[in-house]
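User: Please look over both lines:
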Amino acid sequence: MTPSLTLYSRPGCCLCDDMKAIVAEVQADMAFTVTEIDISAQPELEARFGQDIPVLFINGRKAFKYRVTAGALRRRLHRSGAEARALP
């Protein structure tokens, strides 16, 4: 099963941009899906997360808040069943 990631963020958030870049870097060599959700467009999410963003969930479970490294994300994804992509 391919892991599913959900990234809660908002525009203008430099930590969010950093986390998005790490997720994109890891996605280049590992198979998983990513859904980005802008909390500023949804009052209930704004109330839930407030300033506690970015938050990255893997398969519905909170995995990282504020920062993540490529290595830490790869390790967590391996435990979640992600497979390395075949290189051309």
The helical segments are 14-27, 43-49, 70-79. The chain has a mean pLDDT of 92.
